Structure formats: structure tokens, C-alpha cells
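[Discussion] Sanity-checking designs against the backbone

I'm trying to build intuition for which residues belong where. Below is a C-alpha cell string of 191 positions. I'd appreciate it if someone posts a full sequence so I can compare it with mine line by line.
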């Protein structure tokens, strides 16, 4: 209390900062603004270095100008200070956690997209090629067996291979639509 009352707002020992951490010069302190303008300053938040505790204390400050009867200019200011350090730190810790969570979500989405791309390419390149080779082999065997009872079974196997090839392509497209690579995300979504 004595320390507070023994210094003016202009005293550099206050080490007063705004919420963003930048210095708040004395003429910006709520008491000085209320005294200069004659208008109350309500719920201003400033940080003040507490030399005894060696930490910054966050304060909610109200400054009400007081006028002598008939005076247009205030002669003093009534100031209330409320220590909101715990709330301020909790709010800022929560904000930092939100930013970190957003970063993790973005990273998770990027990993998922990389995995989808890899799976899509594997389906298309490896399984798709193997199914195409199987289809060609079945067609070749069917031609060699034309006119026999095995030709019908091989034709059915060829139809099944065609269905598998189309299903594999469809799954690969759903995992990673080619428009994403060709057009980019926004145009692909519009497409």
C-alpha cells in the first residue's frame, strides 16, 4: 500500500505493461486518462511488476474522476484495483492450449492425407496392375478354351476381374480424388 501511494503513474519503477506485454507509459494509466479526460475508465487490464514477489501481477482497474462542485475538470481520481492474475493466466494458458490443439489437428489431418495418398497409389499401382494382369491372363485362357465348357467359367472370371478393377479404381478415387492433385483443394471441392 505504501509503495503504491508513494509513487506517481509516471514513475518508471512500476514496470506497467499492456496485455500484449508492451510497456504502458504513465500517461496511459487509467488514473491519468480519467484525470485528463474527466471520463471514467472501467475494467482496464494492466500488468504491474511486483518487486517483493518478483512476478507480474495482472490487475483490473477502474478509475473514476472526482469533481469539486461546479468544476469542469476533475481534481482527483478514485481508483480500484482487483488482482486478476489467476484468471488472466488461466485464460492465456487456455488460449495457448487452443493454438497447440489447432496445430496438432492440422498435423493429424496432414498425416491422414499422406496416408490416403499412399493407400490410393498402392491400390492403383500395385493391386490395380495385378488385377489387370489377372484379367489379361483370364482373357487369354478363355480364348484358348473357346468352344469348351471352361470358356464360360473363364468368361465369368473375366467379368469378376473387371468388377474388381473398377472397385479398386473407385476406392482409390474416394481415398484421393485425382482432382486434388490436378486442380488443388478448393477447385476440386467445387468440381
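Best answer:
Here's mine. Compare freely.
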Amino acid at each position: 500500500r505504501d509503495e503504491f501511494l508513494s509513487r506517481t503513474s509516471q514513475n518508471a519503477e512500476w514496470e506497467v505493461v499492456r496485455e500484449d506485454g508492451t510497456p504502458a507509459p504513465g500517461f496511459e494509466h487509467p488514473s491519468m486518462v480519467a484525470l485528463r479526460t474527466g471520463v471514467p475508465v472501467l475494467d482496464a487490464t494492466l500488468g504491474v511488476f511486483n518487486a517483493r514477489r518478483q512476478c507480474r501481477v495482472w490487475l483490473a482497474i477502474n478509475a473514476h474522476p472526482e469533481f469539486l462542485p461546479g468544476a469542469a475538470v476533475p481534481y482527483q481520481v478514485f481508483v480500484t484495483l482487483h488482482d486478476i492474475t489467476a484468471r488472466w493466466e488461466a485464460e492465456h494458458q487456455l488460449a495457448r492450449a487452443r493454438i497447440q490443439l489447432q496445430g496438432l489437428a492440422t498435423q493429424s489431418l496432414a498425416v491422414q492425407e499422406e496416408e490416403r495418398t499412399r493407400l490410393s497409389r498402392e491400390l492403383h499401382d500395385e493391386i490395380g496392375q495385378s488385377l489387370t494382369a489377372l484379367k489379361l491372363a483370364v482373357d487369354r485362357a478363355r480364348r484358348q478354351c473357346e468352344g469348351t465348357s471352361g470358356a464360360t467359367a473363364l468368361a465369368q472370371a473375366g467379368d469378376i476381374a473387371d468388377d474388381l478393377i473398377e472397385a479398386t479404381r473407385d476406392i482409390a478415387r474416394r481415398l484421393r480424388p485425382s482432382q486434388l492433385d490436378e486442380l488443388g483443394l478448393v477447385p476440386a471441392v467445387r468440381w
